[in-house]
Specification:
alpha/beta; Ribosomal Protein S5, domain 2; two-stranded antiparallel sheet
């Protein structure tokens, strides 16, 4: 079936009204990007054509805020709460906006708060690491572990 004839998913993902642009370095810091105004305005135009709901918006690197020179209609919609521009400094801030769940900061022992995204990721990585340790062992050796 051609993409243009597909019906929208009746159960869309949480916060599908948000777009994100930018890049992230190996430390999880958002890096400035080019053409930020054009990217925001392009997404705004799509949202406006479909009808602004007040939930739509875009995440941009915080370092790009100083470069914003948006059209009047985009500014007016943002001021009216019909479109949002979120600036993020790092991946954790973006995760929280996109999922509605705090990313979570590690404590002194390196543990993340229960239920946080980072705690869930750490738990899954630990599961996969345990699974990795079983590869190449005989069933008897795995039973002994």
């Amino acid at each position: 079936m051609p993409l243009r004839n597909r019906k929208p998913d009746p159960e869309p993902c949480h916060r599908v009204a948000l777009a994100i642009t930018g890049s992230v370095n190996q430390l999880g810091q958002a890096q400035a990007i080019g053409a930020v105004n054009e990217k925001i305005e392009g997404f705004f135009d799509v949202c406006a054509a479909r009808g602004l709901s007040g939930a739509q918006g875009v995440l941009i690197p915080a370092s790009n805020v100083k470069h914003l020179m948006l059209r009047r209609d985009v500014v007016a919609a943002a001021q009216a709460g019909q479109f949002h521009i979120y600036s993020v400094e790092n991946v954790d801030q973006a995760i929280a906006l996109l999922t509605g769940v705090a990313a979570g900061q590690a404590d002194e022992q390196g543990q993340y708060p229960a239920g946080s995204i980072n705690q869930r990721v750490a738990a899954r990585v630990a599961q996969l690491n345990d699974l990795r340790k079983t590869f190449g062992r005989t069933p008897a050796a795995n039973a002994a572990v």
